């Protein structure tokens, strides 16, 4: 049988979290393996895959609009297909299944978070039969790491250690679309880490909705510290992980920030709210005091650690006093970065049933106040870097100026530095170079590469 993918071009639009970005690399790996070529834009593509997110309403409604508007985009010259084929995967695919086909008449394929590997077969069926196909299954599938991949960068890899979530925070849709938490065996993780080190990867980011509870389903107890030690022992230069749940962050893991050479001094520890009443309504299962205790221990283990967090403003019933508890917590911790979100009601979650009578403008004003504080604190945190020389993993050139290199410090700060005279920017990508910091802005540092 002829290969329907031969001569085709595909593009993937990814929304949401790093897990989706990782899944997109697997989708790209499968399609390239079948002979389709990656392109950047929908206009150039014969096959368009949307990897979707439904954590907040904005991304949800945008997807429907985007797919609907695609019918106006003409086919590219020389396409081997009779039309442009569109597939929707990720969390909206998982949640809505074949309802998406009914709502979007020119959508061809729907797949879910548990059956990425079905996409090529579904697309082939749609193309050969000029039909439409949806397949979504409930859990139980393999880790997408078993599928071929095309990594976005040669020098960085994402390594999922768990999928799914058992926490059921009352506002969150993730446990309903990603299923129950499932851990990968430690040996598989260690083997994948070794293969990345052999391939020249410099930085591994371990992924999971809550990496700290890794292993509970396999070993009866969390063994995240063992994962960190195993990946460090594989010989990786830089190790990071996301995301952590404060209720499961152990003293053992905190201690590794002091002793594990590859573990970078940066931690994303979502607090969501600084009010004990709201934390309880969110079903977060820790208190403000417990969280601040963790921060103290982390700073004792690694005084230079850079902390980041997620915060939801406007959870149902949040009062000005509750909000001020959050505001003061942000002031006290002094985060390097805070991802701020306005609460978004998700049908099917417990919070969607809670009374929610705070006016929009009040929530927006609180949100703006918090963003101002976050920026001030991030600016302050960056000032402390002036004069320091930091090892920067070069990621490429600045979007606005290709004579400026852009990369990441150990604390995950963006660092800019001019390409040294006579050097070739592309040969520096993926290398770690020392940069002396001369300027500190809110969201980036800049300086000069030091010649060793
Ligand atoms: N509304 C607003 N923000 C949300 N998040 C998760 N669910 C919601 C929601 N319903 C935020 C949390 C989480 C981040 C990934 O998204 O802060 O940590
Ligand atoms: Fe959602 Fe809470 Fe699970 Fe994070 S830990 S994915 S916020 S339910």
Automatic annotation (TrEMBL):
Residues annotated as domain MTTase N-terminal: 8-128
Record key words, sorted: 4Fe-4S, Cytoplasm, Iron, Iron-sulfur, Metal-binding, S-adenosyl-L-methionine, Transferase, tRNA processing
PROSITE patterns, alphabetized: MTTASE_N (PS51449), MTTASE_RADICAL (PS01278), RADICAL_SAM (PS51918), TRAM (PS50926)
Subunit structure: Monomer.
GO cellular component, one term: cytosol
Record: residues binding [4Fe-4S] cluster 2: 165, 169, 172
Domain TRAM span(s) in chain numbering: 383-451
UniProt GO molecular function: 4 iron, 4 sulfur cluster binding; metal ion binding; tRNA-2-methylthio-N(6)-dimethylallyladenosine(37) synthase activity
Cofactor note: Binds 2 [4Fe-4S] clusters. One cluster is coordinated with 3 cysteines and an exchangeable S-adenosyl-L-methionine.
Names of the cofactor(s): [4Fe-4S] cluster
GN (gene name): miaB
Function: Catalyzes the methylthiolation of N6-(dimethylallyl)adenosine (i(6)A), leading to the formation of 2-methylthio-N6-(dimethylallyl)adenosine (ms(2)i(6)A) at position 37 in tRNAs that read codons beginning with uridine.
NCBIfam families found in the cross-reference section: miaB-methiolase, MiaB/RimO family radical SAM methylthiotransferase
Protein localization: Cytoplasm
Binding sites annotated in the UniProt record for [4Fe-4S] cluster 1: 17, 53, 91
SUPFAM superfamilies, alphabetized: Radical SAM enzymes (SSF102114)
Annotated Radical SAM core domain residues: 151-380
Any single Pfam family the record assigns to this protein: TRAM
EC number per UniProt: 2.8.4.3
Species of origin: Adlercreutzia hattorii
Protein name per Swiss-Prot or TrEMBL: tRNA-2-methylthio-N(6)-dimethylallyladenosine synthase
Annotated family: Belongs to the methylthiotransferase family. MiaB subfamily.
Catalysed reactions listed for this entry: N(6)-dimethylallyladenosine(37) in tRNA + (sulfur carrier)-SH + AH2 + 2 S-adenosyl-L-methionine = 2-methylsulfanyl-N(6)-dimethylallyladenosine(37) in tRNA + (sulfur carrier)-H + 5'-deoxyadenosine + L-methionine + A + S-adenosyl-L-homocysteine + 2 H(+)
CDD domains tied to this protein: Radical_SAM (cd01335)
Top-level taxonomic group: Bacteria
């Amino acid at each position: 049988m002829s290969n329907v993918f031969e001569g085709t071009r595909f593009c993937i639009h990814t929304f949401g979290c790093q897990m989706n970005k990782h899944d997109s690399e697997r989708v790209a790996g499968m399609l390239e393996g079948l002979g389709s070529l990656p392109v950047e834009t929908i206009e150039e593509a014969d096959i368009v895959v949307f990897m979707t997110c439904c954590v907040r309403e904005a991304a949800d409604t945008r997807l429907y609009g985007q797919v609907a508007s695609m019918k106006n985009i003409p086919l590219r010259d020389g396409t081997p297909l009779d039309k442009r084929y569109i597939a929707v995967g990720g969390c909206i695919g998982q949640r809505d299944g074949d309802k998406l086909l009914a709502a979007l008449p020119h959508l061809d394929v729907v797949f879910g978070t548990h059956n990425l590997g079905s996409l090529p077969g579904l697309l082939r069926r749609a193309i050969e039969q000029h039909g439409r196909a949806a397949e979504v299954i409930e859990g139980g599938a393999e880790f997408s790491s078993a599928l071929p991949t095309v990594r976005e960068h040669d020098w960085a890899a994402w390594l999922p250690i768990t999928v799914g979530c058992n926490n059921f925070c009352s506002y969150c849709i993730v446990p309903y679309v990603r299923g129950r938490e499932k851990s990968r065996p430690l040996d598989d993780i260690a083997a994948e880490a070794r293969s990345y080190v052999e391939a020249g990867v410099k930085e591994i980011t371990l992924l999971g909705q809550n990496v700290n509870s890794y292993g509970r389903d396999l070993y009866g107890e969390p063994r995240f510290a063992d994962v960190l030690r195993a990946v460090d022992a594989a010989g990786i230069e830089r190790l990071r992980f996301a995301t952590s749940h404060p209720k499961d962050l152990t003293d053992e893991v905190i201690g590794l920030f002091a002793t594990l050479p590859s573990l970078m001094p940066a931690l994303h520890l979502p607090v969501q709210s600084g009010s004990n009443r709201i934390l309880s309504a969110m079903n977060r299962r820790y208190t403000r005091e417990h969280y601040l205790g963790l921060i103290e221990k982390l700073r004792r283990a690694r005084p230079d650690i850079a902390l980041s967090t997620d915060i939801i403003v406007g959870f149902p019933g949040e009062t000005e006093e509750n909000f001020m508890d959050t505001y003061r917590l942000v002031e006290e911790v002094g985060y390097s970065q805070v991802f701020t979100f306005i609460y978004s009601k998700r049908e099917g979650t417990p919070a969607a049933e809670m009374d929610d009578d705070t006016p929009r403008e009040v929530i927006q004003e609180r949100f703006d106040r918090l963003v101002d504080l976050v920026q001030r604190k991030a600016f302050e945190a960056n000032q402390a870097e002036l004069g320091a020389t930091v090892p920067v993993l070069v990621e490429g050139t600045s979007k606005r100026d290709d004579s400026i290199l852009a990369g990441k410090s150990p604390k995950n700060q963006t660092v800019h530095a001019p390409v040294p005279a006579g050097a070739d920017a592309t040969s520096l990508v993926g290398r770690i170079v020392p940069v002396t910091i001369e300027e500190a802005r809110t969201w980036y540092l800049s300086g000069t590469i030091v010649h060793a």
